[in-house]
Specification:
This protein has helices at 23-26, 34-39, 44-70, 75-89, 97-109, 114-143; strands spanning 5-10, 13-18, 28-32, 93-94. By secondary structure, it is of the alpha+beta class. It has one domain (42-143): Up-down Bundle (Four Helix Bundle (Hemerythrin (Met), subunit A)). A 4-stranded antiparallel beta sheet has the order 1-2-3-4. A hairpin with a 2-residue loop joins strand 1 and strand 2 (13-18). The longest helix has 30 residues, at 114-143. The protein starts with a strand and ends with a helix.
Length: 144
């Protein structure tokens, strides 16, 4: 099934609806910019700069985490990379990412449940793919 994302801007919360899913699953807040808006006192240039920095660092950081989880065997690298990514998603809040990254970090520190880590990573990748488009569109909107 092909899934398409529709973006709805409503205040600081950005929603994405996924066609072909149950309504309760389809409509949810993917990106919450309320903290960024609070920090920058609602100034568009500040929001644009924070989102740009987030998009500059988060996708490559997520790819690094994927590499460590899927191909590597270093629990320490997995834990450190999850910790690094957590700080970014604490500011630009992407649904569920902070909690999942925290679980990955904890499991990696405890050197256990690699299958759970893979599942959590898969969930992060899916959510981030929706968030990435939304954030990129918001940066373009703020550039106009």
């Amino acid at each position: 099934m092909v899934k398409r994302f529709f973006i709805v801007f409503s205040g600081p919360l950005i929603e994405a609806s996924i066609v072909g899913m149950e309504h309760s699953q389809a409509n949810h807040n993917v990106v919450d910019l309320s903290y960024v808006l609070e920090l920058g006192e609602g100034k568009p240039e500040f929001v644009k700069e924070v989102l740009s920095i987030f998009m500059e660092h988060t996708p490559p950081g997520l790819k690094e985490l994927e590499k460590y989880v899927r191909k590597g065997r270093s629990w320490d690298k997995i834990s450190k990379q999850a910790h690094f990514l957590k700080s970014s998603v604490g500011i630009v809040r992407v649904e569920g990412m902070h909690d999942r990254l925290q679980k990955i970090e904890t499991l990696a520190k405890e050197k256990r449940d690699k299958d759970v880590i893979v599942k959590l990573l898969d969930e992060i990748v899916i959510t981030f793919s929706a968030a990435e488009k939304i954030i990129t569109d918001k940066i373009k909107e703020l550039s106009d």
